[in-house]
Amino acid sequence: MVSSSHEAMHRIFQEYPGLFSRVSEVLGISIGSPASATVMPTDLTENRPLERRVDTLLRIDMEDDDESYLLAIEAQGKKDPEKPVSWMYYLSYLQAKYKLPPMLLVVCQDRATAEWAAQPYSVGHPQAPVLTLRPLVAGPHNMPVIKDVTEVRKDLVLATLAAITHAGDPDINVILKALSTALRDVPETIADPIVELTAQGLGNRPAAQQWRNLVAVDLSFYKSALSEEIRDEGRAEGIARSVLLLLGQAGVEVSDEARVRILGCGDVETLSRWLLRAPNASIVEDIFAGE
């Protein structure tokens, strides 16, 4: 199953295609700013059973009539010896189909995978290789660690990708705090997608809960999906504890199983029904009647 962090590592380029020009500078090459970008079909399958899909594919049209190019972005979570051959296929297919020079950017969240992905990979006899793959790789080994709010404000999108790639960094809490602080000063329409991409990028790592806490406190005035989810969780927890309080006042014994069920319910409507039934309950099962 594709993880949320996998999706965020490449989808951020769909949302902000100009990000690649800044990432390329970090990686030591100068690509220039795009005039426009078009999201291309990611299905590279031919008319045969084998299916091949790139994570994100963009057509980048440059300013000043410079040559357009295709940017394939792959989010790579671990070493995979089969991937370099697939990447070679992608690039050859794209060159043949669109007659535009392709580029490959691999985004990783751990140093070992990033260093593996950056190694040149050759096809052919060792003494006379016919093709050599040299992808650009962005990961914790080369993306900046941005802990200063002023630096975050200079490029919010690059700072977001940097935070995602450093999800396992010991300083991730400081990195996320700087990002959330910088987002306080920008319009909701800019902050919301960054809030969601960051949450997706952190996946199920411990830093994900830190980000939720920061969103709940620092960005509580935003109406992003994550902010609404956090607020709903807070309301649900408050109602659940009120249900237990009223049951206690009514002298109803609450088993461990029932307590877990009440505290684990995240549906505000269901909890509200239980809350109304609690004062008149003789046994705890009374509040669950008809559920």
Oligomer designation:
single chain
Q: Order of SSEs, N→C?
A: HHEEEHEHEEEHHHHHHHH
In total, how many beta strands? 7
Which range does the strand content fall in? 5-15%
Rounded to the nearest angstrom, the distance between the terminal CA atoms is 32 Å
Strand order of the largest sheet: 1-2-3-4-7
Instruction: Please report the number of helical segments.
Output: 12
> What Rg is obtained from the alpha carbons, in whole angstroms?
25 Å
Main sheet summary: 5 strands, mixed
Low-confidence stretches: none
Number of separate structural domains: 3
Name the average pLDDT: 85
The helicity comes to 40-55%
Shape: elongated
Structural class: alpha/beta
